[in-house]
Amino acid sequence: MSGHEEFLDYYAILGVPPTASPEEIKQAFRALARRVHPDVMPGAETSLLFRLVHEAYEVLSDPERRAAYDRQRQARWSDPGFALRGQLLLSRPRLPALSTSQILYALLTIEMPPEAQPSRRPVDLALVIDRSNSMRGPRLDQAKAAALELAAHLQPGDRLAVVAFHNRAEVVWPLSPAEERHRLHSRLATLEAGGGTEIYRGLLLGFQELFRARRAGASAHLILLTDGRTYGDEDRCRELAEQARQVGIGISAFGIGEDWNDELLDEIAARSGGISGYITSPEEIRQRFLEHLRLLEELGAEDLRLIVEPAEGVQLTGLYQIRPELRVPPREDTGWYLGSLHLSRPIQVLLEFALPPLEPGWRELAHLDLRGQVPGNPSRPIRAQWMVQAPVLPEEPLTVEPPGPLWEALARVVIYRLQEQAWAAVRAGRWEEGARRLQQVGTRLLELGATDLAREALEAATRLLQGQAVPRGQQLALKYKTRMLMLPPPDSGGPS
């Protein structure tokens, strides 16, 4: 950590959140001061720790000094020119001194405070609709109706393009101001289903519509809707998603029906900074499109990357993006790509560290560096930094219950991992193993009060044990519902 200017987190030293009350700070200080007193813990490291605990309390117990420290802390660990708020929560505020390795979890929450809401920026939207033969009927009819309603919700200054594709792609409606949408209805009416599915052709044409008319200060985004699998052009889809991200165009991908490639759509969305999702019925298309438009209207930061620099001997052994949806973010040379931050959807990242044997004292364990940019303004970068640090004590209990938000994040990761392992086992023909994993998913969901989703998991497990295949739609529903799962706060205990 020698490359970073030393700045101690007094809240972390006392093991309290930045929102702690004066009484909570006092209680934490008294409990900690007794444990690290040099008479109890002789040694140079503990003397330093004792001094740091007193120093932290002297500052945080004085309202004026605390306010000044908070301003300094905000300036040090957050971008000074842009309102971005972050909170770092550890699975335990104090670490036991051990001669063996131990695991530490850190939950980083990144959000924008309501008062920092930027003014709405113009939206450039390309809607790329699959019109292959399988879209015939309600799916294509609802997609066309949703496109019209989406156009009606755009505001003056926004622009919309509509691209349709099967084996070929065509621009149904070129990128045009929303005010000109009166002719869109007649253009959509000519759209008929037919042919196969070649997603790359549609993506490319939609991307070109947005790219050729880029303008400063506008949000450019592409929404893909498909119900089919594409063959032979998957790599080109992935490359285009990378290219789109590099020029500030996000791609969100939605699948409808049961025959689309969820892994490919997940990857396209993750690589470009968009989201992916499962649409269960044609009637849901409209709702999902409008929800997505609202997200684009409240975009607060984009192109966010998290760079993690562990201290010597510390290893980063896992990293999950917990919110707005659970996934392993793409890793780049410059860190993990987290995509965009919306006002109503904070980003949460769970990090797992393997720590080396630790002696008593104060330990800086990792440096977190978040970089991004103000939407539509590449010349205005965003940057915020945090230090993962904690005191190490000789008589600290080996196990402690993690804080509620971190417990929830861990529970979500465990459930997500289990259901991913279940479907991998099913695909490999190991149905009994898949059923066992799904039973574990169902049991954990029941414990958490998610009864409807638990029932779906247990029903799927029963089908497998009876030698019956689980319908593809049920698999997709379980996957995307567990990924978006919102858990209630735990009453007691934590995930094992």
Low-confidence stretches: 1-5, 487-496
Helix-residue proportion: 25-40%
Structural class: alpha/beta
Helices, by number, come to: 14
In whole angstroms, the N-to-C terminal distance is: 32 Å
Biggest pleated sheet: 6 strands, mixed
Mean pLDDT across all residues, rounded?
86
Task: Tell me the radius of gyration.
Answer: 25 Å
Major β-sheet strand ordering? 2-16-15-10-13-12
Question: H/E order of the elements?
Answer: HHHHEEEEHEEHHEHEHEHEEEEEEEHHHH
| Morphology call | globular
Count of strand segments: 16
Q: State which percent range the strand residues make up.
A: 25-35%
Describe the structure.
The structure is a single chain. By secondary structure, the protein is an alpha/beta fold. Helix content is 39%, strand content 27%. The chain is built from 14 helices and 16 strands. Strand 12 and strand 13 (335-342) form a beta hairpin.
Could you provide a short overview of the structure?
Helix content is 39%, strand content 27%.
Keywords:
496 residues, alpha/beta, 6-stranded mixed sheet, 14 helices, 39% helix, 27% strand, globular, disordered N terminus
Give me the secondary-structure topology.
Layout: H1 10-14, H2 22-35, H3 44-60, H4 63-77, E1 85-90, E2 95-96, E3 102-111, E4 123-130, H5 138-153, E5 159-165, E6 169-177, H6 184-189, H7 199-212, E7 219-226, H8 234-246, E8 249-256, H9 262-272, E9 276-279, H10 284-297, E10 299-310, E11 315-323, E12 331-332, E13 335-342, E14 347-355, E15 361-374, E16 377-393, H11 404-427, H12 431-447, H13 451-465, H14 472-483
Helix pairs in contact: 2-3, 5-10, 7-8, 8-9, 11-12, 11-14, 12-13, 13-14
